Sequence to fold (259 residues):
Amino acid sequence: MSLRGYCMQTLLAICLALPGVILAEENYLDARYHPLHYKPAIDSATDDQCLACHAEILQREVRGISPAGLKAEDSLAWYQTLSTFGGAQDTFHRSHLAGDYAKQVMDLKCTTCHQGNDPREETANSSADGDSTLVQRKMVDPDICLMCHGQFGYEKMGLPGDWYQYAEIFGNNCLTCHVAIRTTRHEVNFLRPDNIEKLGAENADVCFGCHGGRAWYRISYPYPRHAWPGMASDVPDWAKGRPTESQPRFQIPQKAAAK
Fold:
């Protein structure tokens, strides 16, 4: 058996020995093509099912020293620049799924970001019968990241500049304005809206952290324009054409049923 084949068989054996795993018992390829990795089964996949074979994603450690020789303890990562993130640097997945702050404001699941892909074809519409829903050469739709890591859209809010420059004018409190202009966009199944509201009233970095403070992109996310009490009927030009609801898979079941 080749080294690659041996590694695949060993990986499969480990996966099958873990509790809660739902994978084919034949070989690695059968496991890779298991229905759990595709729609519609992936929509109901649990974290336990995913982590049964991908447990290492939460077990990895941050490098003590970078390839360039910089010690982690002597550097400040971009996500540490706001007061809401405490402690040492952490890995990407753990800081989103298992970190102390993540547990306070988020309820992310593996499938929030990972919606499966076709191993045979990761490029949409490359053939007449290609899957048009595939994200172009991506395992994760970048829009999912953009929802929390876009730029601060100060122009749309009528502010003269970025929050870094003008926060003091508003008492460093986002609710100076937004307490009267509330939306329901936090009421999605991957966030903890009540805790966000509570913590946001105490620390503006809770709001700014996801709305520009940890910007990964040069643009802001075009959020759905949810209605709020007292909302004006006139839609500003920058919001025209936007949806009025979050994506169905992000909606909280009881909320969606009440509509």
